[in-house]
Design goal:
Rossmann fold, 7 strands, seven-stranded parallel beta sheet, 41% helix, alpha/beta
Length: 266
């Protein structure tokens, strides 16, 4: 592993000249992360689901990145389509001029149902999007980064990487496995100067949690357990993602950074 650069601390967080591939960046946490990475100097390749109309609108995330003067590219891929995922990294690589320095796996889906009724099709969808697509993208990224002896991979895990949750068996299984995959890849690739880490969001006010936010009893129960007394917001991930994408985290390997307002501390 290369040593941490001997530069002034603010420069450690610069991503100038870096190319980032990020999934799940059209809204919520992913959008906030993409904009934060661009603010730190990175050029961004956004992955979005194919548009039903066949067009490719830029969207607010891309517009915000472009307004910063960064290069922004959009590639379309349904992460549930594993054949499409297998070609995604190369497509993004071509779009970014043949080099990607950072991969951020932020996309995810949720399905809720009691375990005794949980549909097999929902299980397959959640595992494919939340785990297998991450593995395929990470493997492709490793094939690109390891020979070059530099790179960062950031996987978005969850509190359910550690806890079981209720009525989300597939999501818990996928996120638990993703935490272990993050450590396994880190064990192999750290020596090649590729740092693989995870970010584990707590309860964040995004559309994925809209059912919980709409349930007054669960909303009160959850909010009372969060020490600051509030749910997180997408912008709370700007600092953590820039840290893990930059030279500031050069000696951080295989970590699962929990960003939860202190929930796990309870």
């Amino acid at each position: 592993m290369d040593p941490t650069p001997a530069v002034p601390a603010p420069q450690l967080f610069s991503l100038a000249g870096q190319n980032v591939l990020i999934t799940g960046a059209t809204r919520g946490i992913g959008a906030a992360c993409a904009i934060a990475l661009a603010e730190a100097g990175a050029n961004i390749c956004l992955v979005r689901r194919p548009s039903p109309e066949g067009n490719q609108p830029t969207g607010s995330t891309a517009s915000a990145i472009a307004a910063l003067g960064r290069t922004v590219k959009i590639v379309e891929c349904d992460l549930a389509d594993l054949d499409a995922v297998r070609g995604l990294f190369q497509t993004a690589l071509d779009a970014m001029g043949g080099d990607i320095h950072v991969l951020v796996n932020c996309a995810g889906i949720q399905r809720r149902s009691p375990a005794v009724q949980f549909p097999e099709s929902d299980w397959d969808d959640v595992l494919n999007v939340n785990l297998k697509s991450v593995w395929l993208l990470s493997q492709a990224a490793g094939q690109h980064m390891v020979p070059r002896r530099r790179g960062k991979i950031i996987n978005f895990c969850s509190l359910l990487t550690f806890q079981g949750g209720f009525t989300v068996p597939a999501y818990a299984a996928a996120k638990g496995a993703l935490g272990q995959l993050t450590k396994a890849l880190s064990n192999e690739w750290s020596k090649d100067n590729v740092q693989v880490n995870g970010i584990c969001p707590g309860y964040i006010a995004t559309d994925m949690n809209e059912k919980l936010l709409a349930d007054p009893v669960r909303l009160r129960q959850i909010s009372e357990r969060i020490p600051p007394g509030r749910w997180g917001e997408p912008r709370d991930f700007a600092g953590p993602v820039v840290f893990l994408a930059s030279a500031a985290s050069q000696y951080v390997c295989g970590e699962l950074l929990v960003v939860d307002g202190g929930w796990m501390g309870r």
